[in-house]
Write a structure and sequence with these properties.
The complex is a heterodimer. Helices cover 78% and strands 0% of the residues of chain A. Chain A is mainly alpha-helical. The relative contact order of chain A is 0.15. Chain B is mainly α. Chain B is elongated, with a radius of gyration of 19 Å. Classes of the chains: A mainly alpha, B mainly alpha.
Chain lengths: 425, 156
């Protein structure tokens, strides 16, 4: 009963507009004061939760994306995508999706994609006369590629809580990211057959080649990250730091737009953004104590075991549970609070933690597109200037290809596991 | 008066992120044999991150960047929303003060524990929380007192 009151209070606090991290700390402090147990140590958990080396990859990947966003790299990627697919039926919609795929190799965050590249996409699509709602919906949906294709902030967090190889997760996300891109482009192609959408004139080989050359150093980023991790030169956190160095180097040597002021602002912005994430991690660490005391992981495990006895059933049960919870709870909070209760069960059923992790992250990313807690919807609604209810309506049909990809990933694990097994064997 | 773009805690948090990144490069260079590797780098990086984050809480508050779901509050009238948000600020301020107090107790408790590789007291690490919480409360109470806040951060 105490735990139910705890969860309901937390939800109410979130809905009245209390910052997510603060709401977690408030309910946790309330719980400890009410039950009279260990508040001193629980508060210390905020620091303990942050005191982790792999988690430091988060600010560094944010910083790399921020540096890329503050120069013309993002615009060049959009230009390259335009030359490649701008002429296909669906026009700039395909460009939007493909540019997000390119950018996802440099950023680990869907919000960085929606907020950074999303602004450029909005500007170009509005200028071309693209339907406003559809443009915003495509930006929102395609931005979920950010955490699927390496690098990925949610994958770092999952790796920390589950003990799964972060490098393996990075590799495991590549094929689902490509599948997702393909599924969205097919759906757009079909939609574009029914409504007239502006297209870009077909580019010449010379234009494609020159835009590729300009974008090439930026497109190499995931190779640098994965190559570095799998050659054993650096850990994922160090790979994130090297990505920052790489972003600065190509900006200074190739694009030559980075000024001290821009760099300082990018670091300043990163410090602010990552602190907000850090406070969520700290809040979740406190909540974790409450969950453990209330035996929540055991309750969740017995719930799952009551409906699932095979690995496939388990995966579908986890996906359904996360799809529902993802409508109400933020991604990091879900990852940190719930995932630890899935791991022992998944291990007992012989489920690969990388397979489980990529599926979980994919599901949680779909959750960022569903109301009322869809984080990406909030960002895109602001960056595209589209009212929330219109954006929700325009985005919903685009969940169909994503759910189809999710089902395929669950039913056919090699989509996720082939690359990690190839490189890690 | 126009609110300042940078604040002391924001600058300090940024500098810590820069130092943290440099120490990571030092760690990589040490392992690659460019020069002798140091055992203390990883612990130092973690401590710098904790301090960076705790100082950053306050700057994120100044810019009102802490993630919140404002879907329901946007349906209310402006006056009601303002009142609710002020109540939230007041409650968060009191919570931050309470956390600062509990954090101070944590510092005293860990005073005699020594870190694994840095050779200093663990209290240095745990002090980040009360310092950050105190500054966070200060930012909240300044906002409640009517001090103007900068617009949400934009690097462009």
């Amino acid at each position: 009963m105490t735990f139910l009151i705890f969860i309901v209070t937390w939800m109410v606090l979130i809905f009245v507009g209390i910052p997510i991290a603060v709401s977690m700390i408030v309910v946790s402090v309330g719980y400890f004061l009410y039950t009279g147990i260990g508040i001193n140590f629980a508060v210390q958990r905020i620091v303990d939760g942050l005191n982790s080396f792999p988690i430091i990859a988060i600010p560094l990947f944010i910083l790399a994306a921020s540096i890329f966003n503050s120069s013309s790299i993002t615009r060049n990627l959009f230009g390259f995508a335009t030359h490649l697919v701008g002429h296909v039926r669906g026009g700039l919609g395909h460009v939007n999706i493909l540019a997000s795929l390119f950018f996802s190799g440099m950023s680990g965050s869907a919000v960085a994609d929606a907020g950074g590249l999303g602004k450029i996409e909005a500007e170009a699509m509005q200028k071309a006369g693209y339907p406003h709602d559809l443009a915003a919906a495509l930006t929102a949906v395609s931005s979920i590629l950010g955490p699927l294709v390496p690098p990925s902030i949610p994958m770092v967090v999952y790796g920390v809580v589950s003990g799964a190889s972060i490098g393996g997760l990075f590799l495991g996300g590549i094929v689902p990211g490509l599948l997702c891109t393909l599924a969205m482009m097919i759906m757009l192609y079909i939609v574009a057959g029914r409504i007239s959408l502006p297209v870009h004139p077909r580019s010449t080989w010379r234009q494609i080649r020159s835009s590729f050359i300009v974008s090439f150093p930026a497109l190499l980023t995931p190779v640098v990250i994965i190559g570095g991790i799998f050659s054993g030169i650096f850990s994922p956190t160090e790979a994130a730091a090297v990505t920052v160095l790489y972003a600065i180097a190509i900006d200074l040597l190739v694009y030559r737009e980075l000024t001290w002021r821009k760099l300082w602002d990018a670091v300043y912005e990163t410090a602010i953004m990552s602190s907000t994430i850090a406070l969520i991690i700290g809040g979740v660490s406190m909540m974790g104590v409450v969950m453990a005391r209330e035996k929540a992981p055991e309750q969740i495990a017995s719930l799952l075991m009551s409906v699932a006895s095979t690995p496939t059933e388990f995966m579908f049960a986890v996906t359904l549970l996360l799809l529902i919870l993802g409508c109400f709870i933020e991604v990091l909070a879900l990852l940190l609070v719930l995932v630890p209760s899935f791991i022992p069960l998944a291990t007992a059923l012989g489920i690969d933690p990388v397979y489980l992790g990529v599926n979980i992250i994919f599901t949680l990313m779909i959750g960022t597109l569903t109301p009322p807690m869809g984080m990406i919807l909030f960002v895109v609604s602001k960056s595209h200037g589209v009212e929330m209810h219109r954006l929700i309506r325009a985005t919903m049909p685009w969940l169909i290809p994503l759910i189809i990809v999710q089902i395929l990933m669950i039913l056919y694990p090699p989509f996720i596991l082939a690359l990690p097994r190839l490189f890690m064997s | 008066m126009t609110p300042k773009r940078y604040s002391p805690e924001g600058v300090l948090s940024t500098l810590l992120l820069i130092v943290l990144s440099l120490v990571i490069f030092l760690q990589i260079a040490g392992r690659l044999g460019v020069f002798p590797g140091q055992v203390w780098t990883e612990e130092l990086i973690r401590w710098l991150w904790v301090w960076m984050a705790c100082l950053g809480f306050c700057e994120a508050e100044r810019y009102q960047q802490h993630l919140r779901m404002d879907m329901i509050p946007t349906l209310w009238g402006a006056a009601l929303r303002r009142v609710v948000y002020r109540l939230i600020d007041a409650m968060t301020g009191v919570l931050a003060l309470y956390m600062a107090w509990l954090g101070c107790k944590g510092v005293l408790r860990t005073w005699n524990d020594e870190s694994v590789t840095l050779g200093v007291s663990d209290a240095v690490l745990y002090a980040a929380l009360p310092v950050g919480a105190l500054l966070w409360a200060m930012r909240l109470f300044l906002r409640l007192a009517g001090k103007r806040q900068p617009e949400p951060w934009s690097s462009s």
